């Protein structure tokens, strides 16, 4: 094994979306001749070994997986459920510094057989890793897998608190028109409404953990060596410029990372899947007409009430469209996601319902004409990369600002009201799949796709930025 390569330890926030984005980025670094150690939590690694082909986690020459504990003990029979996001987030903050330090010490031991660790790439919301990299005097590059607009919104939460705009005065502010208040002083986000800022502002509690953590983490970025965003220049220029002017470290836009890794041999061989992928849906899609299938997926963390689930289901059924719907086993609060018999019978001939799918393949399949999404940043970027217009139903975190940008700035999304109504679901699906507005959105989505592919093709702007961050920060 070559000992002269630079060695990056990549540590994502341990949820599916953050892992996927970091893994694409790690692939790109590997392609640029880095030795990679990709750090999973023990829980996720074990779970992924059970859900996916173990070869996906076997690594490659100069690409290894390592594990550290997340500080939460989980009974094995719970292994199909998502971990509670906030509990996990708080636990890794509290418990991962020492295991990360020990892991790097082991990697630096001459007996490890690999090169010494030369930099750490950590999720932008795991700033506790700075304690380890400062001790070791190695660069710590933050990889932001939430959207630039979500990160910028989180950065300004502190000022929103100082200006007495949040926390909300009462629960009523959630339903009266207070959330429509326009905030006109955040650079890069002109005329953003309170409701378009990260969902953690929707609290009356000044001590709310996520409210405070959000801005504290973004402000702690001052000690990072650089911050990388998963976007491309044409898409997010004003927001990236605003971030560059308020953040201390240099900012690089290097995305869409899922496209970067497409140009790399073996890019698909490494995967960390927390659910078992059902590739039969691709065979089903192969039998469908071009652009005729509506795809529905709420990502890995969204939880619906059973009423919302039923309203979505009837909306889909009544639209008369063919659709592919991914219903994770833990999609519905406290219940298994099973369709009521009468809906199942109604949609049998024109739908494919499964637990988890290879989403990037689905979105780039010619049969797929539209996507109902929770607006997770990875899903949004994957849809933009495939030229698929969206219906947006944001759930938490950066999904509210993502929805706003998809609908109002980029012209490729239509929003469903928070309170899901079957008639509205039906109307929007018909509009997207058959209406004039849908055609216009499809045209715009294809324009964005061309720009995304251009940025991420070898030699494109995102590769140039990757070369720059390597030279200016990682190897410095
Ligand atoms: N994903 C997938 N199959 C599915 C659902 C999701 O492969 O059936 C992937 C998707 O491609 C994306 C990630 O899981 O990369 C979800 O991340 P996102 O940021 O969209 O949402 P989150 O799960 O974090 O809410």
Automatic annotation (TrEMBL):
Entries under CDD domains matching the protein: GT1_Gtf-like
Domain of life: Eukaryota
The protein's name in its UniProt record: Glycosyltransferase
GO molecular function per UniProt: quercetin 3-O-glucosyltransferase activity; quercetin 7-O-glucosyltransferase activity
UniProtKB keywords: Glycosyltransferase, Transferase
Similarity section: Belongs to the UDP-glycosyltransferase family.
EC identifiers of the protein: 2.4.1.-
Enzyme class: transferase
Pfam families named in the record: UDPGT
